[in-house]
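Help wanted!
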Amino acid sequence: MNAPGARWPVAALGPIARARALAAAVPGAASAEGVLDAPYDVAWPWVADLEHSVPRFDAQVRALRVLERRPHGDAEELRIRATSFGVSLPFTVRLENGFCLMQARRRLYLVVMAAEPVEEGARTRFFHMEAVPLPGTRPLRRHLRRAVAADLRNLTRLASSGF
Amino acid sequence: MPPPPGRSAGGPRAGPESGEPLAGPAPLVGVELVRAARRGDAAAMDALVRELMPYVGRVCGAIALDRGDDAMQETFVAVLRNLHGLREPAAVHGWVRRIAVREAIRVARAARTEVLDPGALDRGAAPAVDLDAVVDVRSALAGLSPEHRAVLVLREVDGLSEAEVAGLLGVAEGTVKSRLHRARAAFARRWAR
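Answered by r_m:
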């Protein structure tokens, strides 16, 4: 049964399932998920342009600057700075087609975004998670829930208007 | 994104060029990766998922079949949530295997529709067929219960001994032998149709 030609069924973990698994395990994570009324081929490249997209759909990020980017296998590794509430925080980012993980220095903050085509690519399922994965930050969770829900609403509106 | 705790608005702000460089230590692998993930490093948790993905995909796909993707997500939720309970990081693959098999059986049982009763299958001698010649095994696997698929996968794909399979599934070795025999027989019968 182990012949090279044998095709045992193989399961897959899509970007959203991967992000959900992380969200389920990271303490204090808040997440939101929805369907954007925009083709995946339009929505994801727009989101993946972090410098322009994040400050537009995340009202709490005033600016995001990419300092360095380099290919890393099928992904890209980025070094960025995001400014929020007057605080500028460095992040290391892993960016793939449909998946983005942004982790701040010393793990002070975590952002995960994932997307997959639905309806044959005509629309886009989007998953967004943020967390302050540090002890004693549970009270922040309610705020985070509101923040990620607002981000998703903004993104939905932007997608509906063609970005 | 709100500011992290302990940082107030208007606090000290480093210049944009002072972030951590990408160049640094070699990528974490194996035990170090597991340790970093256990410490709550989300990038390490994700890297661990990517490293384990091909193996877990094979186990969940072969046992849970059409629900394999769901089983895979459940496996990684359980793996990441319980990493702190993994006493020996070097044993991560065996530990993940156990979780993947458990989750795949659970998901497959929940979704189970039409499954043949292995007890009703040929109880004769094990088939003298070259099962290595099998190309498309999904339809054959679909006729087995999740528990029988688990035994088959662990023995034939993972190469575990019957004793190891018994230990992993928490059943007697004789039960493994019996399930394996029936699974192989059923597999061959369906393939011969």
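OP: Thanks! One thing I noticed: DSSP finds eight helices and no strands in chain B.
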